[in-house]
Amino acid sequence: MPDTDLIVDLARLNSAVHLSEALLSAARSLAALPVLADQPSGAMVTITDALSAQQEALQQIQDILQRITE
What we know:
- The chain is 84% helix and 0% strand.
- By secondary structure, it is mainly α.
- It has one domain (4-33, 40-69).
- The two termini are 19 Å apart.
């Protein structure tokens, strides 16, 4: 029988990886929008928020990987 905690951790890892990829993609898309060129400070705040959220997702990935390998 598979280890339930491991299955849950792997599911969380999968979700965190997808979230991280989506947030990075969103930050790239936001940076490319010409309308944001007129409001660079607002664009930077939005991009910074997306990258900050991505960093949190990457930390979750690291935490999950550490639990799995223990």
